[in-house]
Design goal:
Elements: E1 3-10, E2 14-15, H1 25-38, E3 50-54, H2 66-73, E4 82-85, H3 91-104, E5 110-118, E6 124-125, E7 141-142, H4 162-173, H5 177-196, H6 224-227, E8 249-258, H7 262-266, E9 272-281, H8 291-302, E10 309-314, H9 319-328, H10 342-345, H11 352-367, E11 371-378, E12 382-389
Parallel strand pairs: 3-4, 3-5, 10-11
Antiparallel strand pairs: 1-8, 1-9, 2-8, 5-8, 6-7, 9-12, 11-12
């Protein structure tokens, strides 16, 4: 049995302390759940077999199982179960993969997947002391991004910061600052043009009460020359800056999956078939390179090669890791992120995988392309990839 993408929608992605800062993560999740269901009015919500939701934080208003909270707040019947998965940046792509498996095993006809992250509202946390009333001070730790409360038994080389890890990747592959800045400027240019062309109009739904209508991080005036003026962010002589890395962001995404038979329940044909998927892992500090083998494995499981792929949606955590992956694949770089990427659009950790799937499905259909790959790197040395097939292009 195959699984299919039937509908996809996301919120605009807001900047840290920006247009979505007032929205709780469970409310963001509820908003996209309502929006994706509005695209399939024929569906009886009680027919949804499960909700699988991605979230990288879970320490605050995410409330540990934000998938269930968002489902209830979004108006789903209390009889529809929900779970939350955490594979950091890959959480909502992991949710799509888990939902697809649920359908393919016959456990459900329809699964609602997606994810959410409010990096603005991620709380500070205090570790509990080993004993009561310690005399020493306690330090609040931000849960917005990266390592925290690190186990001292972890090797030090595994627990370097995300920026330092990608500076190491830059050294390994010799990817220049100039290439990174050019890649980042391209992301902004293409994202802006996609919005101007109306590409995102039916993929993005505003969150009531926020007033944010478009992705907030796009800087259409960005050029390689202007980005070259920014200071390195992680090493005094480094290559990674605030301009060639993805920003801290808020947002949510939803992807409605179903079996082939679900078309009758949903009253609409599918957008794409989930043809292959894979996870891959390597050394934690090399996480940016993990999508390379994840995508290779997903293509092998789909039974195709890179020569048949017409579009790639690769999450742009950093320009350097994106370039390292693109260089490793035998593809034309111009097929990657034709509508901009996370450097411009934003990267709310738990929501980015759903964005990739929704964008890829639409790029395939609009371009008459048959095969596409969505891939994402994940902190602590992991990567995920999904292959979609546009059956109309067979």
């Amino acid at each position: 049995m195959s699984s299919y993408v039937y509908a996809a929608v996301r919120t605009p992605f807001g900047r840290f302390n920006g247009g979505l800062a007032s929205a709780r993560p469970d409310d963001l999740g509820a908003a996209v759940i309502r929006s994706v269901l509005a695209r399939v009015p024929a569906l009886d919500p009680t027919a949804i077999g499960d909700v699988v939701w991605g979230n990288a934080n879970g320490a605050g208003e995410d409330n540990r199982n934000v998938g269930r909270m968002a489902a209830l707040l979004g108006g789903l019947p209390v009889s529809v179960p929900a779970t939350t998965v955490n594979r950091l940046c890959g959480s909502s792509l992991d949710a799509v993969m888990a939902g697809a498996r649920t359908i393919e095993t016959g456990d459900a006809e329809i699964v609602l997947t997606g994810g959410v992250e409010s990096m603005t509202r991620a709380p500070w946390v205090l570790p509990k002391p080993d004993r009561a009333f310690p005399i020493s001070d306690a330090t609040a730790v931000s849960t917005a991004l990266g390592w925290r409360l690190v186990n001292p038994r972890m090797p030090a080389e595994w627990t370097v910061g995300l920026g330092e890890a990608n500076e190491q990747l830059q050294e390994r592959f010799g990817i220049s600052r100039e290439r990174q800045d050019a890649f980042a400027a391209r992301s902004h240019r293409l994202a802006h043009q996609a919005w101007e062309d109306g590409f995102y109009d039916d993929l993005v739904a505003p969150v009531e009460g926020t007033g944010l209508l478009r992705d907030e991080g796009i800087r259409p005036a960005s050029t390689p020359e202007s980005l070259a003026g920014l200071r390195p962010a992680f090493r005094p002589d480094g290559t990674i800056t605030a301009g060639n890395a993805s920003p801290l962001s808020d947002g949510a995404s939803a992807v409605l999956l179903g079996s082939e038979r679900a078309a009758d329940l949903l009253g609409t044909p599918p957008l794409a078939r989930v043809a292959g998927r894979a996870a891959y892992a390597l050394e934690p500090q090399a996480f940016g390179y993990a999508p390379v083998e994840a995508a290779n494995a997903a293509l092998a499981r789909a039974g195709i090669g890179w020569g048949e792929v017409g579009a790639v949606e690769l999450n742009e955590a950093f320009a350097v890791q994106s370039l390292a992956c693109v260089d490793a694949w035998p593809i034309d770089p111009e097929i990657v992120n034709r509508k901009g990427g996370a450097i411009a659009l934003g990267h709310p950790l738990g929501a980015s995988g759903g964005r990739l799937i929704g964008t890829l499905a639409k790029v395939l259909r609009e371009g008459g392309l048959r095969w596409g790959v969505a891939a994402i790197c994940i902190g602590v040395g992991q990567g995920l990839a999904v292959v979609l097939e546009n059956e109309e292009a067979r």
